[in-house]
Amino acid sequence: MRHRWVLVLVLGLACASGPAMAQVATDDRIGRNLEWAGENAAVLQGFLDAYEGERRAAAEFLVANMPAGDLAVATPELLRGTVDYAFRAREELAWAREVPWEVFLHFVLPYRVAEERLDPWRGYFYERLAPRFRGLEDAADVAHGVNLWLGRCPAEGLPPRVRFVQTEFRDQGPLETLRGGTGRCEEMMVTYIAAARSLGIPARSVWTPWWATGDNNHAWVEVWAEGQWYPLGGCEPGSDPRLRSTWFSGRAERAAAIRAACFGRPATAAEGRLRGETIDAAGENFAILDTTGLYSRTGVIEAVATRRDGSPAAGVPVTASVFNYGGLRVVDQGRTGPGGVARLRMGIGGYFLAAGDGPERAWAVVQTVPDGTVRVEMVLGDGPGPEGDFWLRYPTPAEAAHRPDAEEAVPAGGPPEGPGPDLAALALDPAEVPADVCRAARFDPDREEFVSGHLREHLADPGPALGALGDAAGNWRELAEALVRAGPEGIEDMAWLLSSLAHLDRLAATAEALLEHVREARAARGAAAWELPDDLYRGQVLAVSMGSCHFSAWRGEARRRFGDLAAADRRATALGVNRRVASTLARRGGGGGRFAPPAPPEATLRAGGGSDHEVALATVAALRALAVPARESGGWVEFHDGTGWLPLYPHDPDHLGDRGRDAAASARYVEPARLVPRLVRGGRPDEGRSAWALSRWGGASWEPLRQLDAEGDAVRVEPGDYLLTAGLRNRNGDAYVRCLPLRLASGERREVEVALDPPYETRREVDLLVRPLAEVPDLGLPLEDGTARRLSTVLAEGRPVVLAFFTTRHEPCIRMIPLVAAVRGARVVAVCTDEGGAAALRADGRLADLGVEFWFDPGGREAARFIPDLAGHEAERLPSVLLLSGGPASRAVYWCEGYDLNVGSDLGSALEALSRAAAQPARRRAY
User: Fold this and answer.
1) Is residue 384 pLDDT above 80, yes or no?
2) Contact criterion met (CB below 8 Å) for 604 and 39
3) Which residues of 870-902 are buried (b: 16+ CB within 10 A; e: fewer)?
4) d(CA 59, CA 65)
5) Tell me: the pLDDT tens digits for 227-266?
6) Which of 2, 18, 226, 786 has the fewest CB neighbours in a 10 Å radius?
């Protein structure tokens, strides 16, 4: 029986061969991209002219589908290396020769995986890996071996070449990841795909936008072997060498949405569907494939949007969101057709739907059903937003794993059963560690005495510079060279610059680029007609980073194009820059999707245009090149005129400095509002255990603000309409969400309290009981004075009983028993499982005078009747707190195990519900 994770074929034309079957590049797109490349057009044309036949077709495919930001900066080394090494692998390696042409174009040839900085990585990987695996014929074996090479420790005492560490939102390139030895899941995925493609193995990026049953998201890899796609964790080799082992498989079975990226739009995209997958989104040069149904069961949401007069709302965006990191985060989006209907295919579970059309919007909560359709009516109105609470429910792991159609979805063929060759011997060679594991070459201040001594001689405080060298991992020599060559006059600025760089930029920076930045910035400051304090000069002139751009040498290019505009003051200089930008940098769209990071400023300048964001970044670069402090902010540019920050609108020089140009500018420059959210559970502050987010309407959904400006206990925000969301999860990952719409005025300070206690009646048994308890065992245990008590006798009194098993050996128990003891409306019995429990309790003293009745169960022998696996899992199971209803038919109505400081409020809610049920027997229900 084959494993259910084997995936189906993706491309309908995968069995075709030859470039004519997949020629998606048109002369019009190549011509336009050559025009958009600006000064780099000659490089691209020379690249095309260097090839003929299949290689020419491959070159045309790359140029036609190249993201706009790459056109002006793609180098001959990158372009020629991409084609030459891709075809070298295709011709020399057995498995690569079997790859269909269209699969080769989309998933082997591309030089880019996501939004990483461009790296000519193909030769690096091919030269090191091809000799290692050349004798194999099975692509699955090679794919697994590459993962071992990247993700297993190559020698005793050293870490893997790549291991997980959370980084910033920008993507590292694969060579930068190897230099640092770490990356988040996206960067591990990028690195693995680069290595696999270098060997002619088709590989693509796969991700879930947000997990439905927990916070965060994830990205992984699928590789093509024997005509099928297989999932694996990038740089995370599983225990199964046949590509059937991933740690995230259970989560993926409960995912809301899973997507795969395709460089270039498949030739079959015009049909609207690929075999086994749906095109979720597409541009002229990319496609995002919906692969959710290949991992989990799905259902369809049919959203019907109408105006208030009952007419269909056509062309309206509809989004589906899950609760993640405190906010409602979009996992899928559609648009209504002429009849006002949008269809979204989602994983099984609960979703928050939003529909919007200008100021009109609507929302709903919906639950999908397996292989079925749920219809939701949404009437657009002008309401402030959702207010109140709701649950988003999901199947249990066991329910999600039940795939009755799984065997039918598995195609014939695939890698044979069995362990395969000894890949560990091929992939793990300690002899190559010094050459390949860059982490082994980190900066050592004691060993590198020349560099350390130079810094101590010329810097009053060498600590930040030494720290930057250590953080640069395998790239530290570039930074050290820049420090030494900066000279006595520039070393202070260089040290500041290196200490201000993000970790990713330290991995990417070169000595020449760093020296250019410092020399150009110092020269501009010296030539300016105005004085600049050091903090403003360094923070907004010398600084290299801006927005989400990758590190580059943009300063010299900006000075060459704008250096003649230096005027007598900063405002006049800014006006000159503004006018030149408006007249020389065109606004452009351009495809790219997942493959389009913001172009660096020098690329926008050489290309003569870019997106609004890219033009703004180029404007900041031009101003900084003239020693005018500048930053991107609020969707435009700000510059400092000597008295304060003023707006500069790149394509609107007539409104330079106008803080009231439009509503967005007016909101930006008035006194902000201050919001103080206070989360409460059980009448006590939540202390940050539950997540919250503040969102604004973005035209299709309420979009959580990515960054909040903190001021004491408040956050500062522009005046306007917001949605505050907060919530928590139960053991199954179901989310309880509270929503509160807010209208915040300029200068206002608003304190908002949000109670997070879910109504007891809304909870399911899975929320309340750690495991079913068919019958309450009867306990007979001694008290401290030696007399015995029976649980059945206590329950017969009719009052609810709280039964708490604990040990004095665990701090969580000591912290939780007082919370249990504070519960009112129930008899509290605490059972100590320590040997010599009474003595241990007296010796500790922290649980004295709580008004609790202590029973003693030495070794937990009686407790094991409630908790069968207590002996092996005491730390995870204790404290174990049950609420029993009391009376002759007593049952468990609440039961938690382990550390949970919300136990007091949970017990209070359950007791309140029991009290109401007792007062209204007809409405009593079993929880």
Assistant:
1) no
2) no
3) beeebeebbbbbbbbbbeeebbbbbbbbbbebb
4) 10
5) 888 898 898 886 555 566 677 888 899 999 999 999 998 8
6) 786
User: What amino acid occupies position 99?
Assistant: V
Calpha distance 576→6 (Å, rounded): 60
Alpha carbons 40 and 56: distance in angstroms, whole number: 19
Half-sphere exposure of 115 (CA within 13 A, CB side): 15
Adjacency order of strands within the sheet including 317-324: 327-335, 317-324, 350-357, 360-367
How wide is the angle at C-alpha 79 spanned by C-alphas 75 and 85, nearest 5°? 135
In 3D space, the residue among 702, 720, 713, 707 whose CA is nearest the CA of residue 677 turns out to be: 713
| Tally of CB atoms within 10 A around 46 | 12
- Tell me, what's the pLDDT at 62? 96
Give kind and range of the element (H or E) at residue 629: none
The pair of structure tokens assigned to 182 is 């770490």
Predicted pLDDT of residue 301 = 98
Q: Which residue has the tokens 């140009």?
A: 661
Query: For residue 804, what are the contacts with CB-CB under 8 A and spacing of at least 6?
Result: 816, 817, 820, 828, 829, 830, 831, 879, 880, 881, 882
How many CA atoms lie less than 13 Å away from 317 in the CB half-sphere?
Answer: 15
What pTM value is reported for the model?
0.83
Query: Rounded CA gap, 852 and 839, in Å?
Result: 16
Pairing verdict, β 720-729 and 691-697: antiparallel
Half-sphere exposure of 699 (CA within 13 A, CB side): 3
Query: What token pair was written down for 400?
Result: 């999600």
Q: For residue 474, give the DSSP letter.
A: G
Return the biggest CA–CA distance within the chain: 97
Angle at 708 between CA 706 and CA 709, to 5 degrees: 145
Which positions ≥6 away from 105 have C-beta within 8 Å? 22, 24, 58, 61, 264
Give dist(CA 159, CA 157) in Å, integer: 7
* Continuous segment of H or E residues that includes residue 522: helix 511-527
Alpha-carbon span 229 to 193, nearest angstrom: 13
Query: Nearest 5°: CA angle at 854, between 848 and 857?
Result: 130
Total residue length of the chain: 927
- The pLDDT tens digits for 863-887 are 999 998 888 888 888 999 999 998 8
Eight-class DSSP state of 545: -
Query: In the block, which residue shows the tokens 């201000």?
Result: 500
Cα 661 to Cα 652: distance, rounded to the nearest angstrom: 10
- Residue whose pair of structure tokens reads 């559609």 in the numeric block: 334
